[in-house]
Specification:
alpha+beta; two-stranded antiparallel ribbon; 11 helices; 10 strands; 37% helix; globular
């Protein structure tokens, strides 16, 4: 396709050390493209540079459906020889598991708020920027001192997340993750869809629960992550996902209180504001929320 050809041209001409912003400027300068096409090419280029596929899911929270579900990978289905690469044909968004990292922190905070022990302004002492658990040291990038729960998300504090999880019975966090959909297949029922992995109760010890709080020691799919974030955006109601246009709207399930979901959303908005870790995601005139993470 035309976009694929442009993608290949950009890869050949670009400096591998270029930032995403510089790459976007190059696309605007050299090609007369719409914003949508520019974004599509940027995703393709980034995926090829890393030698990986790029999965994307867009869930329409208001319509309660999967608005788009695409995977960009380096394969031409019209090339019979290319079809021999079965790995490139995997639907990674539903099949592949990964450790979601810090993108789980909003859910950890939601669990804390639901416990009744915390409020958005509760203070967590993260000094001196690290904590020792057995032979393992959990670290933050800086010593943030005392942080509110909002601050834990905005600064993406591993120490804060771990201390919150460990302040409650060790079963609280993994049980919460399982209740909202992790460790089980979604209603999409895609062939070969992974259930992800939440460790069994016998493994719910201090070390595993601490790392689980900031997204390690747990395996998830892109589909599960999209569904959990849609639940937050839908005032705590989880809707069964579908790849089909349904005649009747399915009934959702209230997983967390609307108050908790709305409070976490406000925290996620601050991630994109000055002082947060995702300032580049801020769009003037729009409310944007999110969470950075290293999978």
């Amino acid at each position: 396709t035309e976009l694929q050809n442009i993608c290949n041209e950009i890869i050949e001409m670009e400096n591998p050390k270029q930032s995403d912003t510089e790459l976007t400027k190059l696309l605007k300068k050299e090609y007369d493209l719409s914003k949508e096409d520019t974004d599509s090419i940027l995703s393709m280029v980034l995926g090829k540079k890393k030698g990986e596929s790029v999965s994307q899911k867009e869930l329409d929270v208001l319509k309660k459906k999967c608005e788009s579900y695409c995977m960009i990978c380096e394969i031409n289905p019209n090339d019979k020889d290319g079809l021999k690469n079965k790995d490139a044909m995997r639907n990674r968004g539903a099949i592949d598991m990964f450790e979601p990292g810090s993108t789980m922190k909003p859910l950890t905070i939601a669990m804390a708020l639901e416990s009744g022990k915390y409020t958005p302004n509760s203070l967590i002492n993260t000094s001196p920027g690290s904590m020792r658990i057995g032979n393992h040291t959990i670290r933050d990038t800086h010593n943030y001192g005392a942080l509110t729960l909002t601050g834990v998300i905005v600064k993406s504090s591993n120490v804060g997340s771990a201390k919150i999880a460990l302040s409650l019975p060790y079963s609280t966090l993994p049980t919460f993750y399982k209740r909202i959909g992790f460790g089980q297949r979604s209603a999409v029922k895609f062939p070969g869809e992974s259930a992800g992995l939440v460790l069994p109760p016998s493994k719910w010890n201090i070390s595993e629960v601490a790392t689980m709080a900031y997204g390690y020691g747990i395996n998830a799919t892109v589909l599960q992550m999209a569904q959990s974030y849609a639940m937050l955006a839908n005032h705590g109601v989880k809707m069964p996902l579908s790849l089909y246009k349904l005649e009747e709207q399915p009934k959702g399930e209230q997983m967390i209180s609307a108050k908790t979901a709305d409070e976490v959303l406000l925290m996620m908005e601050k991630v994109t504001m000055p002082g947060g870790t995702a300032r580049q995601a801020n769009i003037p005139g729009y409310r944007v929320g999110g969470k950075t993470g290293t999978a």
